[in-house]
Structure prediction request, 559 residues.
Amino acid sequence: MMNTFLWSKNFLLSFIFLCKTSLAQDQGAVRLQDGPNSYEGRVEAFYNGKWLRVCYRKWDMNDANVVCRQLGFSGATSYYQGFTPRGGGAFALNNVNCHGKESSISKCGHDGWGKYDTYYCGVNSNSDAGVVCVAEDDGKIRLVDGATNSTGRVEIMFAKQWGRVCDKGWANVDGNVACKQLGFSGAWVAYTGWDQRGSGFFWLSNINCHGKEGRLTDCSHPRPADVRSYCDKSGYSDAGVLCKVDGDGAVRIVPIGSDHQGRVEIFFSGSWRRICSYGWDLNDANVVCRQLGYKGAWRYRAGWTPRGTGSYYLHGVNCNGKESKLLDCYYNKIWTSHSNCGESSNNDAGVTCKIDGDAAVRLVDGNGNYSGRVEIRYGGIWKRVCDRRWDMKDAQVVCRQLGYGAAKSSHTDWPQKGTGSYWLSNLYCSGTEATLDSCAREWPVGTYSDYCSIAGNDDAGVVCDPTTVSPTRPPPVTQPPVVPSIKLPCKDTDAILCNAVKIGGHCNSSYGKKHCCESCPGCRDVSTGCVQVKQHGLCESSSMKKVCCKTCSQGSLIG
Prediction:
């Protein structure tokens, strides 16, 4: 009987001891609740057999470090005062005051277990303490929502979660650190308000780097998740960067008409984009052409047609003309919008670059090589010369450039007009220049007076003296004129009013009246080479060969 009693007593003492031991181990235990994973959440402490809330009153980083280490992590990266969502019920602790080295929260100072101030720690208020514990890959960054892997808005990882970086205080020096952390040489530009915003929460804001840091987390910044109201989750508050890659700053011409002219594009971060013509001038065009290996530019174009598509990388370019590449010039912030550079508007910058053989002139729609309307070549493309202010001095320069010694006449409104646009207009030659391009002009190459209608008959023409040769140039190789087969009807069967506008045909019949109109549109005398180029000449003689050209009243004679 005594043995049975002693056994029962010992069993009861052992049970009480074990219960006390178990209660002592659980008392002060902590756990994280309502977080996205085991690294983050609001803190609960075990007290009196229950899990209860911990009030955020005086909660700080030292307290968070103790909780995270108690949970088996190496420490904390951040803490919350007022974790969302809040807990329910009473609080186990209030005014926790750890030094940071304690092994558990129960060894920190506090107001006592189960004691809390209902004013600061209301049961129905958002007064919970929270923590973010250290995890592998904390501080890792990435770029998202960009055209390439070297541009985009910045995201950073803490507690195994990717979160946004707020653009409050974001600057180029911060962007440089971010790009270097990603393995690039640096950043061209840091952006605020990235146009394809993120969603969800921000990890960081107010980052302040000096530029030498190896990682964004080495820079000064508030603790992760400590983001103010200016970083609106639903707003455009994301930080972004354009990182540097090989080939950045290269330029190219999207050719129009030839490989040497067109609208200009520039390369950044793996993609080609447009250059806005806002502020674009000949200095800028010269730099682009030299960067591409040309000697320079003949002209610049603001508002190139056809326009490009998509956004612009540059606007407000301002070169002095001596730079070796466009990125050496002043320009506004890369890849930013401007009211004068709308994506749907025709605001592309364009150039025409200089190549060998440019500034040559030729005569077309005339009698062989020594007469015709004038065309000049720039960028490998032949275009018209407008007759606005065209005179004999201009004609003298053209003929001399072609190898003739002199001009016989200058002409406006050349009867067989050209097509397309003009290279030159409003020339002021002195008559002594070696080339037409050397003459003073009122308009730059490729621009011209409103008097020069593309659809109109506004071509400059010349008739050179084929019997004289310029001492500085050999005579041109002459080719026999092309005889057209065009027949034009006679206007008047009695007087035979010629309606001849073509040149190069010769009269080969002694019956001059009809054949002048029907077979010789624009009569040329086969013995003298004279040509009638104006309309409404009256052929009155049966001696066709000479009379058609020399005696037709109202005829304008050449030759």
